[in-house]
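queue> holo job accepted (2-oxoglutaric acid)
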Amino acid sequence: MGLTPQQLEAYRQDGYVVVHDVLDPDDLGRMRAAMKELLAGASAVSGHTALFDLEDSHTAEQPRVRRLKLPHQHHPAFHELIRSPKLLSLMTPILGPSVRMHTSKLNLKSADFGAPVEWHQDWAFYPHTNDDVLALGVLLDDFTPDNGPMMVVPGTHRGPIHDHHHQGVFVGAIDPRRITDDIDRAVPLIAKAGSVTLHHARLIHGSALNTSRRPRSFLLYEAMAADAWPLAGGLFGGLDEFNARMLCGEPTLEPRMTTVPVRMPFPKAPESASLYQSQKYMAQRFFDVAR
Ligand SMILES: O=C(O)CCC(=O)C(=O)O
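queue> job finished
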């Protein structure tokens, strides 16, 4: 599969690319079944867990999950998908032959109330020694204008790293009043289920509340060149665990250092287990939230 030279050039210029028809109906069916299996446990929990990040309105009777955390650790289907030649061949033209995974997440925007994600740059959360760092997103539902598709601001991966702090605390979002010109240029990524997005870690992006009658499920894997080493933690369980996250190629003990803008994501907000929780502490939201 891979990327065409035009797609690679678009990624380099704009900081993102959408590749259509990557997953076939069998792949999609497997991913949706795996998602359903994991979601079945949500009615047994009343607070966030290692798997579930919950909407504020969640109850056991009416389970409302906004994110499945680290799905690749909870279901083999998600572990296997990111190691498939289909997906690896989309990342290696950008990152080179040796690729490591950082984390995964499955963001769920339920019909009518699925939570927005405020404008941010992933790089603010996990700066590395070089910026060959991206997120690969798999659309498990169609992205339509009204179901909260991811929106990106082309070219911002070549610009500054914005302040994601409020009152001295890392809130995981940019104050929208400081980037009004960028927001005006944002592009929604409208595509069919089975498409894949690739976006650079420095790209400004966000997504609105789902106001439609259809869910929007988005499986994201964050990955980087093996010689991009994390600056703000991220060695998690030590070197063996770090290297167990290699998806292809070889690990290295020689980080590649380049000139990249960095702001450290510290100190953390009082609740910071997920982006949704950190963003509650920002001064001014851009997107509506469910009532
Ligand atoms: O789900 C989305 O629309 C955006 C996801 C995102 O930016 C994130 O989880 O970091």
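queue> The domain at 5-279 is CATH 2.60.120.620 (Jelly Rolls).
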